[in-house]
Amino acid sequence: MDKHRSPSSEWVAKILQLRKHLGLNQSEFASRLNYSAMALSRWESGLHEPTAEAYVRMGNLAEHRASNWFWTRAGLKSSDLSRMFPEGSGDPHKSDFPDFEIVTAGSGRKRSTARTRTKLVAIPVLAVQAGTHGAKGDRVLDLDQAEVSEMIAAPAQWCPNPAGTSCVHVRGAAMSPAISDGDLVVVDSTQNDANELSGKIIVAWHKATGLTLSRFLMMKGVQLLESESRDYKPVSVGGDRNWRIVGKVLWWIRRST
Asked: Considering the domain boundaries, does residue 181 fall inside one?
């Protein structure tokens, strides 16, 4: 490798190659990625490296081995890819994607392939924590603006709204035994209508406590956040304009110990 080569030159070349292959100008390509033309211009000039989410979206638009480069750059490990694609090589392109369609959570963009039977969603795992009762969460209100630490793959039927789906970490044990400290919860930010969420586990936000994981209850017009533990009293949220419903928890993941 040329020792004078810029560290950014590889991603710049890959992005330019993909855009030219798709026959798109900067504005069109940026629109396909759901980013601004200014952001794309900075990537192509080497001023800023794309986010992990942007790399995943580019991988969904690419073909053949180029997809693998973008997904790997986004943080998907070879072990992740081998689980997502047919067994044998760990390289999805050796089988020409015979059975898969990859959908990027957070963008809604799809990469269609022939003879698609199984659909997977690449879900961003955010470097964000939602606290249970008695534990403060991070003060991030807009999950779309949070940093992505890694990606996981899940069946598409588990993610009805990929464009608004992401994972956050759990802090605290007030939702045990259902959800424990350190678990990952998958949040659908498009489902935030209080009238449709009574009895559901949600992530809410308050400027003082940050993100809160709780069960949402609505009884005779009164809105409450309730923990699974009896050690904590329900919190009334209806009369406090500082509360926001971030989204509904679809499912959660716990690592074995």
From this structure: yes
Q: Residue 192 is part of a domain; what is its CATH number?
A: 2.10.109.10
Give tens-digit pLDDT for 44-94.
999 888 887 788 778 878 876 677 788 778 776 554 454 444 443 334 333
193-198 average pLDDT score? 92
Per-residue pLDDT averaged across 228-257, rounded?
86
Whether the CB-CB separation of 175 and 214 falls below 8 Å is answered with yes
9-20: pLDDT as tens digits: 888 999 999 999
Degrees to nearest 5, angle at CA 191 with 125 and 208 = 70
Q: Which residues form the domain of 178?
A: 124-152+159-253
pLDDT at position 196 is 94
- The answer to whether residue 29 sits within a structural domain is no
Q: Which DSSP string corresponds to the chain?
A: --TTS-TTHHHHHHHHHHHHHHT--HHHHHHHHTS-HHHHHHHHTTSSPPPHHHHHHHHHH--THHHHHHHHHHT--HHHHHHHS-TTTS-GGGGTSSSEEEEETTT--EE--TT--EEEEEEEEEEEEEE-TTS-------GGGSPEEEEEEEEGGG-S-GGGEEEEEEESSTTTTTS-TT-EEEEETT---GGG-TTSEEEEEETTTEEEEEEEEEETTEEEEE-SSTTS--EE-TT-TT-EEEEEEEEEE----
Distance between CA atoms of residues 72 and 56, nearest Å: 9
